[in-house]
Specification:
The structure is a homodimer of 338-residue chains.
Chain A lengths: L3 H8 L3 H9 L6 H14 L5 H8 L4 E6 L7 H17 L3 E6 L3 H10 L5 E5 L7 H7 L4 E4 L9 E5 L1 H14 L4 E5 L3 H5 L3 H17 L2 E5 L4 H15 L5 E4 L2 H13 L9 E5 L2 H4 L7 E3 L3 H16 L7 E4 L3 E2 L13
Parallel strand pairs in A: 1-2, 1-3, 3-4, 4-5, 5-11, 6-7, 6-8, 8-9, 9-10
Antiparallel strand pairs in A: 10-12
Helix pairs in contact in A: 1-2, 1-3, 5-14, 8-10, 11-12
Chain A binds a DNA duplex (16 and 16 nucleotides) through helix 2 and helix 4.
DNA sequence: TTGAAAGCGTTACCAG
DNA sequence: CTGGTAACGCTTTCAA
C-alpha cells in the first residue's frame, strides 16, 4: 500500500503538501493540487485510518449503542440504526456498533481506547447507570431517550408525553370519554425505559385535563398477553369506546381479539396506535397513528453529534413534535355509547 | 490520558515490557507483571487504538455490511447482526456497521483505509458486483450467502436447497402430492438474492425426485400480494393440499386469507414455513417450520473470520443442515383429498 | 527476563 | 504558497 510519502515523491512535493491537499486546510496552487491528485489516483493511495487517528486525535467514527436483544421493537431499532449510519456517512463518519449488553464497560472501552469521537446511545433507562460514566468521557454523547438526570448530555427523542396527549385529544374530539391504554410490556416498564414512562405520564395528565375516564395496563407479548390486558381494561372501566395502543407487538393480536369477540374497528372501538407508519398501514384496518419518527430522530442525533464535535452550541433537550395521521380506525362515537 | 510511557515510568520498567505484559507475547516475571498491572490500574491506562493499529497493522475491528433498507426480513437481519457483534466481542473484536447501499465503494473504503481486519457481508446477490472487489482486498471476507462464483471467498449459510427438500419430504411423508410454494417477493428474485434461488432450485429438484406435483410463485408483500399469489397457485394446480412458505412477511396475511376463505390449517391445508423459530410460534397456528439459524450462521461467520485472521484453514463453503421442527400446521392428508 | 530504539503513516507546527 | 520535521502512542526486532 502506498503511503503519503510515496505520493509526495511521485508528485515532487513534500508529504505535508499532500496532507494539505487532502484536508484542504491551507491554500494550494491549482497546479500543485492537480499533480498531487494525479499521483494519488495513479498510486491508489488511501490514508491509513490509524495513523490519521494517532496524529490528529480524530477517528471519524462514532459509536452506536443499540439494544440488540431479539426483544421488542426490532423494526424501530433497525430504523434508528439505518438513519444513524446513513447520516453519519453523509458527514464522512463511520459507525461502530455496540450492544447495550456491554453496559458501562462497553462505552468506556471504546471511548478510553480512542476508537470513536462520540457516542450515540439508544434505549435509555430512567436512571441509566451509563450516564455518570458518559459524563466522565472526553468524547461527547447524544442520547436517544430522556433519562431523569441528563444534565450536560444532549438528548433527542419523540415527545412521547405530547404524543399521548395528542392521541387522547384526537379521541376526545371524536366524542370518546372512556378510553383504555394498552401499554408496553411489563418488562419495558420494569426497565423504566424512558419513553414508556413519559408516555404514561402524558396520558394520565391529559386524561385529567380533558376530563376523560381512562384506564391503563401494560401488555405482555403474544395473543394471551393481549387477551389478559383487554380483560383487565374492560374490567376496570366498563364501556370502553376507544384504545390507545403504545405497543407495536400487541397491535396485530389485539385486532384479532377484537375481531374474534365481535367488536368492530372503528364502529365499536376506535384505536390510535403509536408506531412506525408502515406498521400502522400493514394492519387489516389502516390504523390512525402517531408515527415514531425513527429516521428523523436518528438523523437529528447524528447532526447533534456533529455540532458537538465542531464545538458548536446544541439544544440539550430536543423533543420532536408528534404528528397524528388519521386513517381508518377512529370514528365519532355512536349515540348508543354516550 | 496516560500513555504506555507513563505506565512504564510508574512501574519502573521499559515501555516494551508494558506492551508485553499487555499482549502476553513473551514471558514476564510474576513480580514485574504485578507492578505493571498495578501501574496500569492506578493510572487508568487504555492503549490507543489508532497507535496500536499503526504499529501492529491490526485494528481488531471487522466490518459488517448489512442491508439496511427498511425492507423485508428485518428481524432476521437483526439476529445476524446481534450474533456477529456478540461473537466478535468474544474474540475481542469490534464491529463497524456499513450499509449495503454503499456498495463496492464502501467495502473498498474501509478496507483500503485499514479501518478493519476483515469483512462480513450479508444479502449477497447471484452475481454480486462486490465480489471481484473483495478478491482484491488484502483483508479476508466471509459471505453470508452463496453467490455464483465465490472462488477463494468463504461462504456460510443455511443450506436452503436442503431446506426445500426437507420441507417437501416432510409433506410427502404425510401423504401430500400437490404442493404450492409461496416464495419471497419478486423484488428478492429480481435481485437474485442467493437464498431465494437456492431454495427454489432445491424445491424443483425435490419435487421431481419425490414425484410431486408442485407449483411455485413469488409473493408480493401485503394482504393483496398474498391473495393474488394464492389465486395463482390455486389456478395453476387444482387441489393443493399443502403449502411451503418461504416468505416471513406473507405468513400472517396468508393465515388470515386461509381462515377467511374457510380453509383450515392443518385440516384442509398443511403448511411448512421457513422462518425464525419465534416467528413460527407467534402465529395463530403454531407452524411446523424450518428455522433460519441466524444466530448460528452469524457466529460461524465470525469464527471463520477469526480462523482466516489466524492463518488457519477454513472450509470455503459451509452450509448448515436445516432442521425441521414439527408443530401444529401439518397433518396426514385426509382420504377425501387423495 | 528485560531494555533500547527503530519504525508504523499522518498531521500540524514552525520556517521560509 | 510550500517544505521540513517533530510529535502522536504503540509494537517489535535486536541486543543483552
Amino acid at each position: 500500500m502506498p503511503t503519503i510519502n510515496d505520493v509526495a515523491k511521485a508528485a515532487g512535493v513534500s508529504p505535508s503538501t499532500v496532507s494539505y491537499v487532502l484536508s484542504g486546510r491551507r491554500p494550494i496552487s491549482a497546479e500543485t493540487r492537480a499533480r498531487v491528485q494525479a499521483a494519488i489516483a495513479e498510486l491508489g493511495f488511501h490514508p491509513h485510518a490509524g495513523a490519521r487517528a494517532l496524529a490528529s486525535s480524530k477517528t471519524n467514527v462514532i459509536a452506536l449503542v443499540a439494544p440488540l436483544r431479539v426483544d421488542v421493537n426490532v423494526p424501530v431499532i433497525m430504523q434508528f440504526a439505518t438513519a444513524v449510519v446513513t447520516a453519519a456517512r453523509s458527514y464522512n463518519h463511520d459507525v461502530l456498533l455496540l450492544t447495550k449488553d456491554e453496559g458501562t464497560a462497553g462505552v468506556e472501552r471504546v471511548a478510553h481506547s480512542t476508537m470513536v469521537d462520540a457516542l450515540i446511545l439508544m434505549d435509555l433507562e430512567r436512571d441509566d447507570l451509563r450516564i455518570p460514566a458518559l459524563r466522565r468521557l472526553k468524547q461527547p454523547s447524544v442520547l436517544i431517550g430522556l433519562p431523569a438526570d441528563h444534565t450536560g448530555i444532549a438528548c433527542v427523542d419523540l415527545d412521547f408525553g405530547a404524543a399521548a396527549r395528542a392521541a387522547l385529544t384526537h379521541l376526545a374530539g371524536h366524542g370518546h370519554r372512556r378510553i383504555g391504554l394498552v401499554g408496553p410490556s411489563p418488562a419495558v416498564y420494569k426497565r423504566q425505559t424512558t419513553y414508556a414512562d413519559r408516555f404514561l405520564t402524558g396520558f394520565l395528565e391529559a386524561s385529567v385535563d380533558l376530563g376523560l375516564q381512562t384506564v391503563t395496563h401494560p401488555c405482555e407479548p403474544g395473543a394471551e398477553g393481549v387477551r389478559s390486558c383487554m380483560a383487565d381494561l374492560d374490567a376496570e372501566l366498563a364501556g370502553l369506546t376507544a384504545l390507545v395502543v403504545h405497543n407495536e407487538e400487541a397491535l396485530r393480536p389485539l385486532l384479532d381479539l377484537l375481531h374474534a369477540t365481535g367488536r368492530r374497528v372503528p364502529e365499536d372501538v376506535s384505536i390510535v396506535a403509536i408506531c412506525p407508519r408502515d406498521v400502522a398501514t400493514a394492519m387489516p384496518v389502516n390504523l390512525t397513528s402517531i408515527d415514531i419518527p425513527a429516521h428523523d430522530v436518528g438523523t437529528l442525533a447524528v447532526e447533534t453529534v456533529m455540532r458537538l464535535l465542531d464545538g458548536r452550541r446544541v439544544e440539550y433537550t430536543r423533543l420532536l413534535e408528534p404528528s397524528l395521521v388519521e386513517r381508518d380506525s377512529c370514528s365519532e362515537i355512536s349515540a348508543s355509547h354516550r
